[in-house]
């Protein structure tokens, strides 16, 4: 029993550090022969195009939340400090509960993927991601530090349910020798998406402050509105990418 626990712990640690799921070889889709005849292209070309498209959808599915999450992290602090009027200490702490909840959820996300396949935690994470951002948009006139904390917990829960599993799922779409490249690509794109998210969030607030009407607080509020709309749209894109990703994978699996 003790040996079994150590083995499970080792497996869990390896998965947590590398974010690599169980690797499966991608089989040829049943429709490949039809595509070859239809487009008059070699089988290898059709395989590369379909695999590249599926991998692209998966990358979009994984990097869009990073863009949104890091942009929201900066924006939430600025919003709480400037518009709600909280102290700098409280403004800095509004993201702490969500980060703690996300850290607790991450190990269970991997176990959930093992038990229910990747589709369930990714879809659940995408729904929570969209729900949290829509709550920010709808509740903006009523926002308090507590409501920001609640919304961020929902958003962070969705992110941690889906991100590591997205990388693991993407690893199953390529050959074993390319798994390291997939992980490196995700890490690079995550950092790039984070910097873009912060830039977009602050740029929209700055644009509203310069071009809007009324007091600075009113213009900042409108800029916040733009940010919440952008965040909600990106969350919707994430959920649609998840749906499209598994729709394509289901088609490939049915064709095998």
What's the short version?
With 256 residues, the protein is mostly helical.
Model description:
This protein has 256 residues and is mainly α. The chain has one domain: Growth Hormone, Chain: A, CATH 1.20.1250.20. It contains nine helices and no strands. Helix 5 packs parallel to helix 7 and helix 6 runs antiparallel to helix 7. About 9% of the residues have low confidence. It holds the Pfam family MFS_1. This is MFS transporter. One of its GO terms (cellular component) is plasma membrane. It is a multi-pass membrane protein.
What gap, in angstroms, lies between the N and C termini?
A: 38 Å
CATH architecture: Up-down Bundle
CATH homologous superfamily, by name? MFS general substrate transporter like domains
**Low-confidence parts, pLDDT < 50 over ≥5 residues?**
13-34
Number of strands: 0
Strands, helices and their partners?
Elements: H1 2-18, H2 32-39, H3 43-84, H4 88-93, H5 96-116, H6 119-138, H7 145-171, H8 179-211, H9 216-255
Helix pairs in contact: 3-7, 3-8, 3-9, 5-7, 6-7, 6-9, 8-9
Protein name: MFS transporter
Membrane topology: Multi-pass membrane protein
Subcellular location: Cell membrane
């Amino acid at each position: 029993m003790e040996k079994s626990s150590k083995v499970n712990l080792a497996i869990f640690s390896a998965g947590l550090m590398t974010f690599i799921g169980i690797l499966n070889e991608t089989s040829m889709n049943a429709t490949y022969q039809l595509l070859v005849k239809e487009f008059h292209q070699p089988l290898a070309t059709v395989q590369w195009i379909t695999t590249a498209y599926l991998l692209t959808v998966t990358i979009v599915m994984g990097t869009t939340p990073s863009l949104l999450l890091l942009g929201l992290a900066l924006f939430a602090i600025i919003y709480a400090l400037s518009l709600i009027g909280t102290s700098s200490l409280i403004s800095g702490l509004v993201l702490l509960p969500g980060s703690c909840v996300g850290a607790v959820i991450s190990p269970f996300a991997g176990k959930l993927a093992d038990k229910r396949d990747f589709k369930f935690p990714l879809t659940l994470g995408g729904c929570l991601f969209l729900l949290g951002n829509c709550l920010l948009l709808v509740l903006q006139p009523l926002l308090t530090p507590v409501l920001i904390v609640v919304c961020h917990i929902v958003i962070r829960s969705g992110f941690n349910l889906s991100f590591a599993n997205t990388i693991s799922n993407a690893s199953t779409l390529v050959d074993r020798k390319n798994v390291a490249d997939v992980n490196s690509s995700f890490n690079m794109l995550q950092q790039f998406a984070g910097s873009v998210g912060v830039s977009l969030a602050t740029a929209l607030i700055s644009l509203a402050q310069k071009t809007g009407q009324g007091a600075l607080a009113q213009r900042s509020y409108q800029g916040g509105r733009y940010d919440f709309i952008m965040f909600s749209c990106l969350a919707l894109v994430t959920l649609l990418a998840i749906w499209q990703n598994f729709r394509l994978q289901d088609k490939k699996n049915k064709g095998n």
